[in-house]
Automatic annotation (TrEMBL):
Similarity field: Belongs to the thiolase-like superfamily. FabH family.
Gene: fabH
Single annotated GO MF: beta-ketoacyl-acyl-carrier-protein synthase III activity
Protein name according to UniProt: Beta-ketoacyl-[acyl-carrier-protein] synthase III
Pathway the protein takes part in: Lipid metabolism; fatty acid biosynthesis
Subunit record text: Homodimer.
UniProt organism field: Paenibacillus amylolyticus
Domain Beta-ketoacyl-[acyl-carrier-protein] synthase III N-terminal: 110-188
Length: 329
């Protein structure tokens, strides 16, 4: 990958909806408490989309900021990829809705489904398109409205999720910078551990599927936890190997924000000190595809990386999937 055209991130933006749902709000909705949620997950609050906001609306807010920070407008884009598992509707894609709203006339646009790993899958796709010379500028967005598919009577899941969007413009960067390696993967055999069964061609929406709560996230938390701890470690080691780097080369570690205990186990395994790790799961909870870009963009806004720093992003999610990348900022 090192001999190819250098491709990296040239603009960033993020958006979370205004409404905040705290742990004490949840205490009034299900049999839970702040102490359990904080100690088991690290989450204190999460942002929830307004009734009139859909995923494309969150994505749009993040996208215009990313374009502005890149000094671009929609007409500069050749490609729009939206990583999401909560598209506005099955079709048209959320990416096509955005293409219209952003005035990105003629740009290719598609949605990508890899749950919480979706943003890294999107970065890898955009980078490949640009390195091949097919396109020059791509907008990659991770956006999800998990609140729309969360059962707020199920304490096992409803405390974990929030809504948001993070966007980056991907394009050519100076020599020596940009993406150095990706490691993407999947274990489809574990698909049923984390799924929303209803609403597709297998189980189209009927009164019965609604009655049986088939349009909500269903998760085996313990098994997903084990998978997460395993692949956060293995994917990080593998992507560093592909990039020809050591774990000590990492300046900033940007993990998927699902659970502080999963992040801590990766930190221990990789012997990463706290100051090198981005954590905002306390404020936003698990925002699925938006989680990694929200953490990356927030870190950029806080001035936590400087040109030349090595940034390692890694996530896992439904599918089951994982994705990791090494980026020289
Ligand atoms: N409040 C109080 N008690 C609760 C709550 C709650 N909100 N939720 C579960 N409990 C109870 C359980 O019922 C259980 O009680 P029991 O022992 O009487 O049965 C007890 O707490 C402990 O349950 P565990 O499942 O063992 O709790 P654990 O420590 O594993 O934490 C958690 C659960 C937070 C879900 C954890 O397993 C986890 O984070 N898993 C990974 C989830 C994840 O990352 N999902 C990714 C989704 S990403 C995507 O693609 C959308």
């Amino acid at each position: 990958m090192n001999n190819l055209r250098p491709v990296g991130i040239i603009g960033t933006g993020k958006y979370v909806p205004e409404k905040i749902l705290t742990n004490s709000d949840l205490e009034k909705m299900v049999d839970t408490n702040d102490e359990w949620i904080v100690s088991r997950t690290g989450i204190k609050e999460r942002h929830i989309a307004a009734p009139d906001q859909a995923t494309s609306d969150l994505a749009y807010e993040a996208a215009i900021k990313a374009l502005e920070s890149a000094g671009m407008t929609g007409s500069d884009l050749d490609l729009i990829i939206v990583a999401t598992i909560t598209p506005d509707s099955s079709f048209p894609s959320t990416a096509c809705i955005l293409q219209d709203k952003l005035g990105a006339k003629g740009a290719a646009a598609f949605d990508l489904s890899a749950a919480c790993s979706g943003f890294v899958y999107g970065l890898a796709s955009a980078t490949s398109f640009i390195q091949s010379g097919m396109y020059n500028n791509a907008l990659v967005i991770g956006a999800d409205c998990l609140s729309r598919i969360t059962d707020y009577t199920d304490r096992n899941t409803c405390v974990l999720f929030g809504d948001g969007a993070g966007a980056v413009v991907v394009g050519e960067v100076p020599e020596g910078r940009g993406f150095k390696a990706f490691d993407l993967g999947a274990e489809g055999a574990g698909g049923s551990l984390l799924q929303m069964e209803g609403g597709g061609s297998r189980l189209p929406a009927t009164a019965e599927t609604v009655e049986n709560k088939k349009h909500y996230i269903n998760m085996n938390g313990r098994e997903v936890f084990k998978f997460a701890v395993r692949v956060m470690g293995t994917a990080t080691i593998e992507v560093l190997r592909k990039a020809g780097m050591e774990r000590t080369d990492v300046d900033l570690f940007v993990p998927h924000q699902a659970n502080i205990r999963i992040i801590q186990s990766a930190m221990q395994r990789l012997e990463l000190p706290e100051e090198k790790v981005v954590v905002n799961v306390d404020k936003y909870a698990n925002t699925s595809a938006a989680s990694i870009p929200l953490a990356l963009v927030e870190a950029a806004e806080e001035g936590r990386m400087k040109a030349g720093d090595t940034v390692l992003m890694v996530g896992f999610g439904g599918g089951l999937t994982w994705g990791a990348s090494v980026l020289v900022w």
